[in-house]
Amino acid sequence: MWLERVSQPFADLIEIEDARDHLRILDQDNDAEIEAAIVAATAYLDVDEDGFGGLGFPLVSQQWKLRVPGFAEVMTRLPFARVTSVDAIEVIGADDVPASVPPADYMLTGSGRLKQVVLTSGASWPNVADRPDAVTIRFTAGWPDVDAVPGDIKAAARLLIGHFFENRTAVVDGPSAEIALGVERLTTRYKAFAI
């Protein structure tokens, strides 16, 4: 089972003017450094191209492919919170011929943040080839746009921007304990397994 990001990562969480206000910088002399801090803060909170890190899910709408060997329940469970749609299911049939599962045959369901693809009444999954990538589930996850990202996640991004701007040279341990704790408290409730 593995993930592949189909769409490119989204724009920065915080605009340059917002970051300047947070940093209390009036001029534009440091914009390159501020932009680098914005990019670093966004990357810190978002998942990477393999679906790891950050808060554990894409922050702003991205399309992904989940490749699995079959349709067992554990295989059709989607790996992120904030899944908004299943866009397509493609299979490599037992005869090694690619095919698509009709959208009327499946639906996205779930409880809380756990989402899964299930069959609709009367439908059945096709037989698939014996290979690790026999089934590809295309899905979209994340808030619709940057404006829809909650304010406390953006507040966490501002804390990180301040840290990365003030520590432009190498820092051994990453954000300080105070910054890390602030980010954690602001974002914990959004994680798939919130405390």
Descriptive account of the structure:
The chain is of the alpha+beta class. 26% of the residues lie in helices and 22% in strands. The chain is built from four helices and seven strands. α2 (31-45) crosses α3 (151-166) and α3 (151-166) runs antiparallel to α4. The two termini are 27 Å apart. 27% of the residues are buried. The model has no long low-confidence stretch (mean pLDDT 90).
Q: What helical percentage do the residues reach? A: 25-40%
Distance separating the two termini: 27 Å
- Number of separate helices: 4
Sequence of secondary-structure elements: EHHEEEEEEHH
- Our estimate of the beta-strand percent is 15-25%
Number of strands: 7
Which strand order do you get reading across the main beta sheet? 1-2-7-3-4
Looking at how many chains there are and whether they match, the oligomeric state comes to single chain
- What general form does the structure show? elongated
Whole-number radius of gyration? 20 Å
Mean pLDDT: 90
Largest sheet: 5 strands, antiparallel
Class based on secondary structure composition and strand pairing:
alpha+beta
Low-confidence runs: none
